[in-house]
């Protein structure tokens, strides 16, 4: 069949025409950008087409319908597959997260600007830029992990909000993944967890094209994927030809009929290499086809060889009559049902509206604990757990857990009715993620994309195990709270394998991320309050295992100073310090002790508690100068961490008391002396700083 802009075709030919339109749009966009991957979109076009056109419960005119099915392209390098589909399906642009417009999210112009500055078609799909992109993908395996969080969210929302005759939530999640995704550890963690949870609303479509970037997949990947997934407790089915729409349709039906487990559809496909003569699987494919190859490929499709970005007549109409009408009908029915639901259950309606806007309910910060002064004090993980438990009673959609460290992280929600999340109780608030930090982080991002307020805990040192998910939460601008306890050598006997050293500076380097390391019990409560009010990025709560004194706030400044990132906790007489001691977390009290000691020697010190660099940097210059007056050059930072970066606050004449090794296994008291975190050492550093500043 030869195609031109006016070709009139019907039925199966029309399907082929739509599929080849996706393919050629991908080819042309990659060619024009002179970068990107055309092969995966070419191979996967029929898979995405049949899913969107015939199965996905999605209204292109309302891409933020809360009960829409989610489509996740974990193989983010195939971004043009998604952009072409969003364009042809007519998905509308949403502004400010909530306003649906008449504009297309991805227009043909956007496709022509693939991978260009300020386009909505970046190299890999970014959810905060492009409506219809449910989550940001590109780092392989992450979309798989996110999709498990979305499936958890769907189950939780259904259990929490559905009522007899009102099935407000029942959406499914479809994820396209490739060999690379399934090689990644994070996807293995996610699949294991999804199988354990029996998430029957989750469908992964595995593009079994037997090739990765370097060459044939079997250079590095030869396991039996199907058997592996059967072992995880998944339902596994196979489509032996990606171009066979009937087989694909049957596989989707099998998924929809499977009630007790997630489904993996293994689709045997051929990655697009252009014309058949070029089909040599040892050849690199992560690059444009080249002008000559583009022509041959188009010829092969019966396409006009010189046409660029051609959308033949009938294609967009066909999408409109398919996903367009089907989606509109589904949404219209839901909307009608929801109107009655809102009348009958105004409170639930109100909660859902708040969630969609990422707002907090009235009274969200009531009954928060207040801790009396106590020289012995408690660990900030303890006060953190108490604050979290209070907040979770006020914010019903604050849901989370830990990677098998609930008792250590103090992240377990213990109030009546909190319950455990699982197939027997989908409304449970405690999620036992198991020892799967990376899978947990990816799931938290998926839950957040579904408008829950998720939190997840592990030891601070193991933030390394989920670091890619922190970065993605920051990039996606999703408010996930990570609870990291055992935040320093203060954890003691577990030793260097567990003692975080470089984590603080390295995580402070992640843009759009707030690191909070509160200094006592009341600062920890304030830190949680700050965390809940941040709506466009992750917050990392960095909390101690060991006890720290609770400051007497009648003598010291109020803990509400946390919100400003740093504040003067205790000042020198007349606000004229000889030296400024800056501490974070458990080292704030050490600074207070050192200041006391210096006072005995006639030296006046100011103590600044600095729980968050990022929040401090947001303050105006006048405030910053009031905390760290430029006239006082004698400054000391005290933090049980690599001191990298503290130069910016202590200046060229300052001193940094920090860690320079991986720590050691010993009781905490011994480590304190051994590594020099004592008032004597801090006082000596202060005197050095004063001398240098003279
Ligand atoms: C974590 C991560 N590592 C490496 C890459 C670079 N990369 C992009 S695509 C790709 C090959 C993936 O192979 P496969 O998933 O089979 O996709 P296909 O080439 O078949 O489209 C690689 C290594 C990446 N995007 N993410
Ligand atoms: Mg592959």
Task: Describe what you observe in this structure.
There is one protein chain. The longest helix has 30 residues, at 315-344. α2 (39-54) runs parallel beside α3. 41% of the residues lie in helices and 14% in strands. The strands form five sheets. A six-stranded parallel beta sheet has the order 10-9-11-12-14-13, sandwiched between helices. It has a five-stranded parallel beta sheet with strand order 1-4-5-7-6, with helices on both faces. α9 (245-257) links the parallel β6 and β7 (263-268). It is of the alpha/beta class and 694 residues long. It starts with 10 loop residues before the first helix and ends with a helix. The protein is elongated, with a radius of gyration of 28 Å. Bound molecules: thiamine diphosphate and magnesium ion (MG). The site of magnesium ion has 7 residues, from loops.
Task: Indicate the topology.
Elements: H1 11-33, H2 39-54, E1 70-73, H3 79-89, E2 92-95, E3 99-104, H4 108-112, H5 142-161, E4 173-177, H6 179-183, H7 185-197, E5 202-208, H8 225-232, E6 235-239, H9 245-257, E7 263-268, H10 291-300, H11 315-344, H12 346-356, E8 374-379, H13 380-394, E9 398-402, H14 406-409, E10 430-432, H15 437-449, E11 453-459, H16 463-476, E12 481-485, H17 503-508, E13 514-516, H18 521-533, E14 539-542, E15 547-550, E16 567-570, E17 579-583, H19 587-600, E18 605-609, H20 613-617, H21 621-627, E19 635-638, H22 647-650, E20 655-657, H23 668-674, H24 679-693
Parallel strand pairs: 1-4, 4-5, 5-7, 6-7, 9-10, 9-11, 11-12, 12-14, 13-14, 17-18, 17-19, 19-20
Antiparallel strand pairs: 2-3, 8-15, 16-18
The structure holds thiamine diphosphate and magnesium ion (MG).
The site of thiamine diphosphate has 16 residues, from α2 and α6.
């Amino acid at each position: 069949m030869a195609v031109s802009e006016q070709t009139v075709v019907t039925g199966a030919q029309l399907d082929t025409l739509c599929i080849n339109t996706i393919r050629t749009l991908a080819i042309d966009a990659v060619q024009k950008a002179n970068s990107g991957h055309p092969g995966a979109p070419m191979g996967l076009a029929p898979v995405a087409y049949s899913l969107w056109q015939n199965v996905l419960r999605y209204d292109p005119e309302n891409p933020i319908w809360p009960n829409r099915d989610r489509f996740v392209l974990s193989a983010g390098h195939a971004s043009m597959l998604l952009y072409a589909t969003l364009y042809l399906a007519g998905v509308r642009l949403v502004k400010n997260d909530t306003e649906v417009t008449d504009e297309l999210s991805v227009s043909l112009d956007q496709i022509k600007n693939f991978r260009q500055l300020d386009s909505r078609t970046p190299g890999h799909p970014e959810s905060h830029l492009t409506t219809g992109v449910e989550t940001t993908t590109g780092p392989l395996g992450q979309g798989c992990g996110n999709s498990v969080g979305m499936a958890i969210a769907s189950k939780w929302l259904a259990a929490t909000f559905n009522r007899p005759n009102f099935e407000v939530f029942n959406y499914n999640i479809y994820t396209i993944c490739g060999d690379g995704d399934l090689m990644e550890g994070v996807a293995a963690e996610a699949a294991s967890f999804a199988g354990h949870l029996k998430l029957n609303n989750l469908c992964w479509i595995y593009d079994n094209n037997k090739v990765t970037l370097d060459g044939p997949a079997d250079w590095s990947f030869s396991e039996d994927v199907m058997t592996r997934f059967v072992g995880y407790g998944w339902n596994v089915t196979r489509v032996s030809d990606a171009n066979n729409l009937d087989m694909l349709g049957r596989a989707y039906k099998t998924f929809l009929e499977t009630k007790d487990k997630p489904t993996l559809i293994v689709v045997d496909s051929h990655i697009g290499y252009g014309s058949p003569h070029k089909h040599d699987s040892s050849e690199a494919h992560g690059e444009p086809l080249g002008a000559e190859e583009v022509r041959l490929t188009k010829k092969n499709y019966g396409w006009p060889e010189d046409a660029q970005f051609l959308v033949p007549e009938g294609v967009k109409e066909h999408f409109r009559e398919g996903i367009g009408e089907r989606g509109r009908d589904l949404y219209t029915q839901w909307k009608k049902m929801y109107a009655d639901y809102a009348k009958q259950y105004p409170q639930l309606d109100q909660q859902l509206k708040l969630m969609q806007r990422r707002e907090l309910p009235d009274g969200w910060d009531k009954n928060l604990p207040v801790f009396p002064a106590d020289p012995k004090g408690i660990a900030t993980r303890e006060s953190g757990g108490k604050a979290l438990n209070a907040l979770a009673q006020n914010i019903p959609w604050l849901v989370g857990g830990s990677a098998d460290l609930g008792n250590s992280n103090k992240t377990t929600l213990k109030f009546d009715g909190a319950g455990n999340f699982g197939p027997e109780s989908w409304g449970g608030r405690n999620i036992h993620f198991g020892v799967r930090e990376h899978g947990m982080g990816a799931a938290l991002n998926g839950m957040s994309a579904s408008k829950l307020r998720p939190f997840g805990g592990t030891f601070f040192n193991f933030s390394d195990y989920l670091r890619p998910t922190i970065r993605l939460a920051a990039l996606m601008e999703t408010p996930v709270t990570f609870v990291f306890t055992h935040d320093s050598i203060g954890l003691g006997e577990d030793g260097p394998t567990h003692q975080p050293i470089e984590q603080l500076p390295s995580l402070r380097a992640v843009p759009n991320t707030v690191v909070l390391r509160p200094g006592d019990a009341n600062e920890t409560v304030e830190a949680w309050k700050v965390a809940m009010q941040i709506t466009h990025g992750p917050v990392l709560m960095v909390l101690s295992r060991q006890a720290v004194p609770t400051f007497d706030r009648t003598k010291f400044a109020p803990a509400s100073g946390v919100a400003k990132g740093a504040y003067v906790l205790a000042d020198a007489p007349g606000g004229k310090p000889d030296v400024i001691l800056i501490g974070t977390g458990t080292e704030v009290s050490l600074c207070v002790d050192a200041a006391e000691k210096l006072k005995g020697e006639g030296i006046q010190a100011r103590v600044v508690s600095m729980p968050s660099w990022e929040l401090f940097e947001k303050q105006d210059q006048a405030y910053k100068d009031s905390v760290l007056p430029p006239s006082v050059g004698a400054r000391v930072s005290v933090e049980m961490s690599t001191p990298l970066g503290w130069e910016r606050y202590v200046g060229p004449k300052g001193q940094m008391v920090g860690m320079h090794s991986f720590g050691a296994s010993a009781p905490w008291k011994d480590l304190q002396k051994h590594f020099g975190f004592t008032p004597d050492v801090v006082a000596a550093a202060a005197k050095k700083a004063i001398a240098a500043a003279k």
